[in-house]
Amino acid sequence: MLYPQMSESRTVISLDGIWNFKLDNGDGFEEKWPERKLSDARPMPVPCSYNDVAVDPEIRDHIGWVFYQRDFYITNQMLMSRLMLRFGSVTHTARIYLNGNLLCEHKGGFLPFEVRLNGFARAGSNLLTVAVDNRVDNTTLPAGRLVTESYPKIGEVTRDYPNFDFYNYAGIMRPVQIYATPHDYIEDISIQTALDGEVSYQIQCSGEGKMLVFVQDADGRIVAWGDDGRIVAWGDDGRLKIDSPVLWEPSNPYLYTLTVTFGDDIYRQTFGIRTVEVRGGRFLLNGKPFYFKGFGKHEDSPVHGRGFDSAMNVGDINLLKWIGANSFRTSHYPYSEEMMMLCDREGILVIDEVPAVGLHTGFTATGMLGGEANGTWTQMQTAEHHQEVISQMIARDKNHPCVVMWSVANEPASEEDGAAEYFRPLVELARDCDPQHRPVTIVQYGGATPETSKVSDFIDVLCLNRYFGWYSQEGRLDLAEVMLEDELKRWTEKYPEKPILFTEYGADTISGMHDVIPTLFSEEYQEALLAMYHQVFDRFPTVCGEQAWNFADFATAENIRRVQGNKKGIFTRGRKPKKAAFSLKERWESIPDFDYKTGK
Ligand code: BDP
Q: Where is the Glycoside hydrolase family 2 catalytic domain (predicted)?
């Protein structure tokens, strides 16, 4: 799926700004709210989560539908083009209405979708209404539990328990755009590269036209030609060769641009020349053993919630560079396309994760769940939607050089009966969807050990989230160390050929809380715990990286394990460093991107 872009043939118009907003009173659809101006609406920024800007508990904790609305003008000339309306993401379910007519419904809160406006939009003023539902249950990703309970005096109360440890922010979270293309247009482009400069491309088009393809280097010089003006219908495949290619690497994220002209349409797709491969217990970038340094992150900030915020994104990338990190995981959902483009340009490697979190009926990290052990794969009704989000994420992100691995889930019940049957087809699907054949992983929690995990045989990298010294052996780093080392020994004995990446480890830490003896929640304990993990990682050659949990403190649902959110950040929610930030910086600045453990 192509990102909307201006070119000689394409126009993009932003619909971001202040929209009208109203909570559904339960009758919004029956009363046909999308047909007229919302009454008693309040202002709401787009893109943004609605929860925190409203300063109103009724809105922050609302369960169910809300309505957004705005009008916009269209000219007669615009109607002559192919006109599309595109949402970067709406969390979690959206119904889109134009002038009262339902245009489309979309499920899944973290991926883009678009709908054609021709035939629905009219010259002059148009009324756009977006209804948004934030409910999560055992059919959604992420998964949750909708529960109705009865209370004395109050009666029935419905609560929606997220089965995941981040606040269930909702709304129109990413940019909204209208874009226009010619009627015969370029629909999709896929690019694969090799280290000798060979570039393969597949172009999908609608209609018929003259096809011209060439590549420019970062200075705009044409360095290779592909198709040269033949008439083609519906698309074309080809190969071209760039002499003396400059490779894409973290220290030099060099980008080329493939320009495609098809009839009157022009689209420019950036790409990097790099390869990714797992071999002999190592993760290879451009054929060299790579060491991941970084974090699991969240799209999370005060006021915006999970809403797109380019200042926050650029600031976070700069903090990653300050601390010596070279990578992050998009825990626990695909991040904005704008963030992916930024990582391409800044040389940050990304593990791209679908929103498959909460696939564990016994999960208790929110302190409120419980449930049936061994019941996950009979209770969850997510398999079909899981396929959709995998194929949509890969379709969206396949050309990004920054993306080096796909994560198909975070902490599912991979030790329970049925896990292999559930995941094997999904891992295969991810492999089939990706023209670049990146490695595929499933991030596993502590309950899935080398002995119990039912999915480790068919994933490429063992990604482990471990909390020895926090959720177990709390306060006893000596015990935590032996447990961690022992488990790592068992993993490496069973899977000597699979690299191991630590995708989570950490401790809740209240910024400003200090102690001479490192006690739980103090900045000293966080620092000591990370240092202990690092010593153990360094004893194992197949540990190919460390991504601490979390980059910054973040909002969660209310529960007794969380004090105004999860405090495992190395930075506070406002991005101020805790003590551990400085020792991480010292360590990571001394670890090279390549060949850390090969002694070269
Ligand atoms: C893991 C989850 C992550 C949580 C973290 C924690 O993957 O989402 O925030 O633990 O408990 O279970 O801090």
A: 276-591
